[in-house]
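Reposting from the mailing list since nobody answered there.

I have sequence plus structure tokens for a pair of proteins and want to know whether others read the tokens the same way I do. The first protein:
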Amino acid sequence: MTSPIDIEDGGTSVVVGGEPGPPARNEPVRLEGRSPGQLMWTRFKRDRTGIISACVVGFFFLVGLLAPLISKVYGKDPYTVYADERPDLFDSAGVPVQPNGGISGDFWFGLEPGNGYDVFTKLIYGIRTSLMISVAVTVAVVVTGILLGVTAGYLGGKTDYAIGRITDFLLAFPAQLFFIASMPVVVSLFVSPRDETPTYVRVVALILVQWLLGWMGLGRILRGTALSLREREFIEAARVSGASPWRIIRKEILPNIVTPLLVQSTYLLPGFVTAEAGLSFLGVGIVEPTPDWGQMFSKASTELVMQNDITYMFFPGISMIIFVVAFNLLGDSVRDAFDPKTAR
């Protein structure tokens, strides 16, 4: 049996394959348009991978923001040296006596060999530190990429040439080697080598060093986008109407670069997270007692930990992998939501 199909004709409802229905009213059909942002959000909501990735990323940021509250409820902090406070939990070499790094109801992720820091609170505070630095670097890179990339693309001429040569010069630097070599130099600008370096100085140095060599890729992408946009009819119409270059950039170009800007930002941030962790792993970033993701990897690679507590690497390692993979998948989902023709 086929289901009825309603066909409206001249105000009368005709039913094919069913009983006649009541007369239909001659009401105008309202078509509601949707903005590109609404269309993007609709497509994104259909992407199960994107939604799950966004939830995972949001969870990590929530843990970082609420780290002090979680630590207070948990009843421990990442700075207490339990090797001194509770020596009965460690053997003569400073290794937790209980198996699996001392995991128990009191210490959910165990204790760190050596000083005996609580691994759980050190991890959540380490996530907080790494994400705080990486978000600051990403914001600085995005702002610089917009200012220089869009300016070069729209104005062109000598401005484009000068910014282009600066970009080429900075791209010639080997980023990782420059990070390692320049961190002590940048720190020495703020603190005398004879004095202990405060944590905030190391944080500022990490942000400056990563920002200096981190904006060029985004700047080039936005330059290319601005170059293509400045030849469009609506830009020419705004120029003919007497709009200033600043107004054209602010009102016409910037709203049209949101797509590449948002997509690239979702790829930049996890890259800066791993770069910051790498610097701390090498000893030129955040150092103890300030918790940090990379610092935990550095501790896990020591001979004491590798030989006696291989589970210590599990928690920071698996959390880093989950975060980076989730953020990259989120970037893919955002890209596909903005460009439905893109195939994975």
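The second protein, same order (residues first, tokens after):
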Amino acid sequence: MGRSDLRHMDETLDLRSFYLRLIKKIWIIPLAAIIGAIVAGCIYTLVTVTFGPEKTYSTESKLYIKFAYDENAKSQVDYYNAYTWSLLMTTDDILDEVMNNLGKAGVSEDEITRQEVAESIAAEIPSDVRLLLVTVKNNNKDHADLITDATDKSLENYGETNDAFTSIKLLSKSEAALVTYSDKTFTAAAFGAVACLVLTIFVLLLVDALDDAVYVPEDIEKRFDVPVLGVAGKSEYFRNELQAAFEKNVAGAEKVIFISTDSALDISVSEKDLLAVKEALGNRFSAQTEKIIAMETPGNVLENYRKIGTCDGVILGIPAGKRCGTMNDHIVAQLQKHECPILGVVLVRADEKFLKKYYRL
């Protein structure tokens, strides 16, 4: 009797056991979603607001163009399209007059540079070639207004001095206003919530797939070819199962040792589990259970190997829910090497509420 050919890493996931245990920690999933939403929202705020780009102020001017008409040259309207105007706004013909108008307004070139003006102005023709739309964007609200006024005057002057036009007149203009971008905080928070929710579910599945703990007696039967005596519990149902199996597999053995598989560093772990087993067995087997000796796993004490080699058999106590599957394998292998019979395995420290739900008791 010993280990089964099926190792715990090769087992099929017990979905019923998994879902029952998941229900106990289901609060982790919505909590992870909330944390993900908060973190994503904070990151979005930090990136777009706290450490985002500088505030930008924008103005908009609408100007009406009257093109000159010549019998010989015809109209030059076809030469002035959106692309032409975008280029013209950065040429000396326009910029020189803009800088001159700024100077008249008391603004020095050190305060508002020529490059700043060129980078701030944009022009386009929305649909009608006679309507010119000029946009000024600047990080400084006052500068945006000053550049707008200077540009509008420059364009009106350009309409008077250029033979292609009869005139360029200002129709309307807006005051500098803060450019606002669509707030996607909710979208970022929703994305963070969904991402964390999916990641949490994946992690829970992964953790359970790597879980080498046992939760029900059938988990032990899958891994070890040894008698499973039952559960050391207080329920009458489990007590009866344990007593029946104990009577069949352990009765008659005189020198019996009880070992908890997680007692390598502390013999009191085995002693407490043995006491729980004795209480579950009751007075009926008191004469025999008094002879059972608690012992820590044999690795740390050399003398323990002599004891397991000379006893009639060992009862193993495997703690429910404790991740010591590899140690369980190791102890069973050690007992096999020393030709020590394993009389049975008891599931100790089990969650009886979980077991009753699992078995629908």
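Reply #1 (J.P.):
I read it the same way you do. The mean pLDDT is 87.
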